[in-house]
Description:
Layout: H1 3-17, H2 39-48, H3 71-75, H4 88-101, E1 105-112, E2 118-124, H5 127-131, H6 133-143, H7 151-159, E3 164-166, E4 172-173
Antiparallel strand pairs: 1-2, 2-3, 3-4
Amino acid sequence: xxxxxxxxxxxxxxxxxxxxxxxxxxxxxxxxxxxxxxxxxxxxxxxxxxxxxxxxxxxxxxxxxxxxxxxxxxxxxxxxxxxxxxxxxxxxxxxxxxxxxxxxxxxxxxxxxxxxxxxxxxxxxxxxxxxxxxxxxxxxxxxxxxxxxxxxxxxxxxxxxxxxxxxxxxxxxxxxxxxxxxxxxxxx
Length: 188
């Protein structure tokens, strides 16, 4: 397992432990107090990082949490340690532990590869979004086939969306821009 994967695990724990996404304040509410840092894990991140140009302030440390296990607490070591591999099945067990520890995470299996390995998703968002996750999956399914929607219907669905953080990509999925449609009738 690479350091990039280890940093991805740190990012997941950061997102779960830090309140709103990456510690940002919600509209109309003050920013949360700075969170304590897991000094031991942060030291290991810096020690194993071979090139400091490939990190950011989002993943160069690990917040401390009493509720959400860090990869170090879960595995007994940091994934990405030089010379040691972390198997996908163990990473999936960690994802399940994160989802069990936090109401801001949901883990599920979406199928299997041709080789019979599980394919999984870990969604991280605020509690309301996780609670309404099936609603957002339905919206994405409808937007996935735009032939069934008018431009106006698509824009209305997009307005109801919220950003999610997906473990399989490690990338924030912002609310998509409204589709450019020249007609308000469904296309074939």
